[in-house]
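*Target chain*
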Amino acid sequence: MKLSEIARLLNGEIVGNGDVEIERVEKIEDAGPGDITFLSNQKYRKHLKTTAASAVLISNDTLLEDLKELPSPLHFVKVSDPYLSFQQLLDHFHPQVMPLEKGIHPTAVIAKTAVLGEGVAIGAHVVICEHCQIGAHVSIYPATVIADGVEIGEGSILYSNITVREQCKIGKRAIIHAGTVIGSDGFGFAPKDDGTYQKIPQRGNVIIEGDVEIGANCTIDRATIGSTIIRKGVKLDNLIHVAHNVIIGENTVIAAQTGISGSTKIGKNCVIAGQVGFVGHIEIADRSTFGAQSGISKSFTEPGKTYFGYPAKEHHQALRIEGALRQLPELLVEIRSMKKRLEEVEQLLKLQTSDMK
């Protein structure tokens, strides 16, 4: 495929030779002749001097003067968003494998009271229980279990070995990856006088709104009463736990191994990195950002702030504390040296005082 064709596909502008042949897409560090790559994050800019790629996607605001400094000639396509354009090229050069075939596999078990929309694809050994409502063009891959009274919106995709417990609701165009459990019991136990625990009934459900994507092996607990809610456009990575009665606001993204304790409310458009832990019954403002492995022990109610650390603090304060901690070994050596010198001075003063007497 010629670079000029790629430029037309992406509505981009060529800087260089449009006749260059492009055969593959590749990361900028690994690209070779015949590859096209992209530069979105400026920390990878250094690779422009060493990449063997034939062409690079760059943003419209990249200064052409900077490109003249490169030791070897490169060809460029200027686009509004190099990262999104690269994703488009991925789909072109590596089309998605054939989706699940439409229709119902003969080994699927579907209750007579279940209602299935047109164009559904139901894989092998899927179980759909009583009074479920499955929207049009939903795909449910093999060995997934849909319990009583579940609703799944049109165009959603549920991959293999998923369990959706009773009365849970999934919106339109949701994507749920393999091994995830939706609607397991919330973690609720009341201590008794004899030291044992009484299980608290979990009678609520989970509501997942439209355009949500949930990674593999996530667990989203049903509410004790009411609903655990994942709002429209939320994206969850693999291995995330969402406890009972949690609410996650629209378009929030959460990376792997994050855990959110019960009844916590997270705002819209938040960014949560990996292995972040939230205590229960707190509120997080819209557009909050949390660095990896942060521990969130209280509510943060001011929108648009960035936090990091354990317990989490505002980003700049956390960095100052981290910087001070790194100096502690040298400071301890210095303090011990000062202490020794002080003891020597005190001893000398005692000797002088004794001589004066």
